[in-house]
Amino acid sequence: MKISRRGFVGSAVATAAALVVPRRARADLASALESSSVFYLTPLKSNGDESTCKAEIWFVADGGACYVVTSSTAWRARSIERGLNRARIWVGEYGSWQSANDAFRAAPSFEATGSVVTDPDRQRRVLEKMGDKFRSEWVVWGPRFRNGIADGSRVMLEYIPS
Question: Does the residue 82 lie in any domain?
Answer without folding.
Answer: yes
